[in-house]
Amino acid sequence: MDILIGTKNEYKATEIASLLEGLRDLNIHYLAGLNLDLKIEEEQNTLKKNAEKKALEFSGFTDWYVLASDGGVDIPALGKKWDILKNQRTVGEDSTDLEKAQKLLELMKDLKEGNRYASYHLALALARKGKLIWSGEKVTDKGIIAEHLFNQEIPPYRWMGHLWYYPQFKKVFNQLSEEEKVKVRKQGESLKRSLQKKIREFL
C-alpha cells in the first residue's frame, strides 16, 4: 500500500509518518519528493474539515492513499486574541521561528503560570481518488506555555516546541529525551490506533 503524507512541512511530515509505525507492507511518500506545486487554502471552520479538504484535494493528483492533517494550539486564557484555526496567521505566517515565538510571548506577557495552559488538537484525514475514507480529531498533548525562551536556537519549524513546557520534566518539548517524548505522546495514542485500524482494512 502506498500512502502520501499531505504536507510540505518537513517536520510535520515526519511527525505524521510516525503515526504509521508498526504497519507492514506500507510505502510512505512525501510531497518533497514529488513535482506537485499545490497550495490548499485552510478556510474551513474546523481542523477536521481542513484536514479532510487537504486529503481530498491532494488525492486528486495521485493514485496513492493520502494522509493529511491540520493541527492547532488552544490557549483558553487568550480569549479572542487567539484562534485555534489561525495559530500561524496570528504570529505571522512569513515570520521567522524566533519572531513567532516572541509574538506569542508578547501576547501572553501578563499571564502567569496558572493561566498559561494549552492543548494541542490534531485532526487527520485519509482519502483516495477524491473519496474520503476516514477522519478523526483528538487532543494529543497538554502543556504550559513557558514565560520566556530558554534559548534562541530553535530547530526549523519547531518554534512552539521551544515554548511548550512540561512541569513534570521541567523542560520544554524541544529539550525532551526520546524516552520522555514517548511518554508525552501517549496522549495521542487513541487517534493513532483509530488511524491504523482503518489502514489495516486495506493492507
Tell me what you see in this structure:
The chain is of the alpha/beta class. The chain has one domain (2-200): Maf protein (Alpha-Beta Complex), CATH 3.90.950.10. The protein is 29% helix and 25% strand. It is built from six helices and seven strands; from the N terminus they run βαβαβααββββαα. It has a seven-stranded mixed sheet with strand order 2-1-3-4-5-6-7. Strand 1, helix 1 (10-18) and strand 2 (27-30) form a beta-alpha-beta unit. The longest helix is centred in the N-terminal third of the chain and has 13 residues, at 47-59.
Output the helix-strand order. Answer: EHEHEHHEEEEHH
CA-based shape: globular
- Number of discrete helical segments: 6
- Unreliable spans are none
C-alpha end-to-end distance: 6 Å
